[in-house]
Design goal:
Blueprint (H helix, E strand, L loop, with lengths): L5 H8 L4 H11 L2 H5 L9 H9 L5 H6 L13 H4 L9 E6 L5 E4 H7 L3 E8 L4 E11 H8 L7 E6 L18 E5 H5 L4 E6 L2 E2 L9 E3 L12 E7 L6 H5 L23 E4 L6 E2 L7 H4 L13
Ligand MTE binds next to loops.
């Protein structure tokens, strides 16, 4: 029998298209993996393992399995209830302790900040996860434009609360949804403002037209449909911390060793997979972000 040439099986070994393969490169960031992208070059078994372990989540699941309480408390209803959400015109006001307060229209944002693809894991505090190919840009680029003053040490994010369009606002929660980051966390290159997924503008269910993405923190830190970004001197209140302070801290870094008071965070269910997998410290971004927490107890600062 004719031996199969390795090059003939190349398209099959990954069960992914080239784009997905390339996406893994940005996840693992290794030069060796990059080299494997050259035509005709076959990844090693070790490289294949890394690549296959973080396959992109399919677009349908990303758009239809959501947490967005302003629309619905039920994850599979959000996309139905939000489908006609009006996001044009849209403005994001950036103000507070800045030299150059600015209100950006969505067009200003798209014109001023080049959009790039970022493939990130998203880990929800509830114990499920996805891998999402975002389009967006580093938040630091926008902060550079407004120029935080020396007193600014935190950033507060506020998302829209539109009673005409969002039936979930009838639930008794401390609306609007707010989140916060320390300024150095906000300036970290991994922190992005996302405007799209899989080369399409964000769906309302994913936070159209613009949302925060902080991949090393639990998903609830990533506020959707942002309208205000305020630079402040004090640690801001956050939506989930106001509701249940013992369960949801300000930091909310993904950490398999710090359990939620009601469940373990050691493992997660990747959407599309049957078995649970181990959760990674800082959601796998330790190298990029651990310096932000040097000398801090991650347990006390949960
Ligand atoms: N932002 C707003 N405004 N309202 C929300 O209910 N849910 C958060 C976060 N951002 C939420 C939000 C939670 S709990 C998670 S896990 C992520 O959005 C989910 O993002 P996704 O539905 O796009 O996957």
């Amino acid at each position: 029998m004719k031996e199969i040439d390795r090059s003939e099986i190349t398209p099959k070994w990954l069960y992914m298209n080239r784009r997905q393969f390339l996406s893994k490169v940005s996840l693992v960031g290794g030069a060796a993996v990059l080299a494997a992208c050259a035509p005709g070059v076959i990844p090693t078994a070790e490289e294949e393992k890394i690549i296959l372990s973080d396959m992109l989540t399919d677009f349908e699941s990303i758009k239809t399995y959501n947490n967005y309480y302003e629309f619905s408390l039920s994850k599979d209803r959000v996309h139905v209830v939000s489908k006609d959400f009006k996001t044009d015109p849209w403005q994001v006001e950036v103000y507070g302790l800045v030299e150059n307060p600015t209100t950006f229209s969505m067009q200003d944002i798209l014109d001023q900040f080049p959009q790039e693809e970022r493939i990130y894991r998203l880990r929800c505090v509830e114990g499920w996860s996805m891998v999402i190919p975002w389009m967006g840009f580093p938040l630091s680029k926008l902060l550079d434009v407004v120029k935080p003053t020396a007193e600014a040490t935190f950033v507060r994010f506020q998302t829209i609360a539109d009673f005409d369009q969002m039936p979930g606002l009838d639930a008794n929660f401390p609306w609007p949804y707010q989140e916060g980051l320390r300024l150095d966390e906000a300036m970290n290159d991994l922190t992005i403002l996302a405007t799209g997924i899989y080369d399409e503008p964000l769906s309302p269910s994913n936070g159209a037209p613009i949302r925060l993405v902080v991949p090393w923190k639990y998903g609830f830190k990533s506020g959707k449909s942002l309208i205000k970004i305020e630079l402040v001197a004090e640690q801001p209140h956050t939506f989930w911390n106001l509701i249940a302070p013992r369960e949801y801290g300000f930091y909310s870094n993904v950490n398999p060793d710090v359990a939620h008071p009601r469940w373990s965070q050691a493992t997660e269910r990747r959407i599309g997979e049957l078995q649970r997998r181990p959760t990674l410290l800082f959601n796998g971004y330790e190298e990029e972000v651990a310096y932000l927490y040097e000398g801090m107890s991650l347990r006390a600062n949960y």
